[in-house]
Amino acid sequence: MSVVPSPDYALLARDIKQWALELGFAQAAISGVELGEDETHLEHWLGEGLHGEMDYMARHGTRRSRPAELEPGTLRVISVRMDYRAPGTRHAWDVLNDGEAGYVARYALGRDYHKLMRNRLQKLAERIRAAIGEFGYRAYVDSAPVLEKALARNAGLGWIGKHTVLINKDAGSYFFLGELYTDLPLPVDAPATAHCGTCTRCIEVCPTQAILGPYRLDARRCISYLTIELKGSIPEELRAPMGNRIFGCDDCQLVCPWNKFAQDATEPDFAPRHSLDGAKLAELFGWSEQEFLRRTEGMAIRRTGYEGWLRNIAVALGNAPSSAQVVATLRTREHAASRIVREHVAWALARHGERILEGGPQPAAS
To answer: Which of 168, 322, 175, 346 is nearest to 258 (CA)?
Structure first.
């Protein structure tokens, strides 16, 4: 009876990294599954209630920080990253400084990355299987309780910055992460070391002061949370600081010095759709629900839902420079079916009414 030889795991690891590049990933690296310090950090964060309404962050217990509990038999994690900054996109600061435009986080302008990256990870697994035979694995892209940034850091793909975003020394932070949990005893890569130094630009720039200090994010104040995860009313004191950000926020990344090394995406599907890299608020506020669903098909923006979309735009219109057109646009939703939308429209109209009473149309105060 013939014995099947064990794979040369060092050679296999090198091949996996090359196959990942061929599949369109910018980089791949391998880590173990020990996340003890990160588990403690997560437990403290949850204990302080800084996750807001994201109950799923606590629901899965230690499966998030113990990969073998999520996928039994897991010995290693292959982490991959994919750049998403599309070439030709309108400059972020230009949009943020245009009070009549709506700002959408740069990662969400094109095709939703979840399915695209999962498909690529599945192809990577198939390449591995073709080389060595059957093995245990499972692919994840924001689809399960996974501490993806900690795993990527341990694999050497970058360090977790003071804003809690992963930073790569050669590619900044504009990239997505994905993981392939596997039972293969592959050699692991060296973890990344931190290079933020004394810089605190990300903490200082946050419009809502959501970054309480290095590595401490209060999600309840974060604009990404407010515009995407939060399903009810946005706290009134946070509406003006939101400016024209209608889906997500990039400010902490925009000021990060390491993003001078950011790489453009090679995936054409990440290019902006429907001119959402600077579309006018009045136009977006006019979308019907059917139009919203049609235009956002296959995009991350769908996550906010139509009600959340109108709520967010109403806040941005309340922060826009006062004009008869802005007021008229808001009045088109003054009697919307949604109580949430009506509430935020009323707030926005009151903002413009106060400004006009104080001396005529003028820009909104941030």
So the answer is: 168
